Amino acid sequence: MRKALDTLYDASAWIAAIFMILLLIMVLLSILGRQFGFHVRGTDAYAGYMMAGAGFFALAHTLKRGEHIRVTLLLSALKPPLRRQFEIFSLAAAVLLSGLLAWFSIQLAVQSYTIHDISTGNDATPLWIPQIAMALGTTILLIAFIDEFIGEMRGTRKVASGDESLRNE
Q1: Which of 58, 62, 126, 135 has the least CB density, counted as fewest CB within 10 Å?
Q2: What SS3 class is residue 126?
């Protein structure tokens, strides 16, 4: 199960990277269009969709690598038993909130599909297509928070340190 979950988080990160590359292509296409006098419809809208997709698909992988912002000042001041209770409470709240976000993201995509909602831009993209990225990304984030919560309850959770990012500055 651990290997499957880690593969899911890594795949999510790779999908986020693909969205970032597609975002770059959209921006470059827009720049080249201005420079050489041609226009590709919807590049601004598609760049926005790609940015949202990259952000949502990166959430779970970022969480599992310990790169999300944490209030370590408060955690470091707590004694171990109280710190664990605080972690359990925080993770339970995160599971609830990410579950709500995933649920409503899925509902939004389904509703957009049902009513044939399209973007107001000149590309007229069916909105359920870009909304799938948000729905899937938040669902994978929910799975990651459940994974963290269960690990904390079992006492097997290893909190990834975000110190690596500090060494890059």
Answers
A1: 126
A2: strand
The pTM score is 0.85
Q: How far apart are CA 141 and CA 131, in angstroms?
A: 15
- The Cα 95–Cα 1 span in angstroms is 19
Instruction: Name the residue type at position 24.
Output: L
* Residue 98: closest CA among 134, 48, 47: 134
Query: Do 98 and 138 contact (CB within 8 A), yes or no?
Result: yes
Kindly report the length of the chain.
169
* Rounded-to-10 torsion of CA 95, 99, 102, 104: -140
- Cα separation of 144 and 149, whole Å? 9
- Report the C-alpha gap between 90 and 95 in whole angstroms: 9
Q: Which two tokens stand for residue 104?
A: 């409503």
CB atoms within 10 A of CB 39: 11
DSSP lists the bridge partners of residue 118 as: 126
CA 57 to chain centre: 4
**Angle in degrees, 0-180, between the axes of helices 128-154 and 80-114, rounded to the nearest 10:** 160
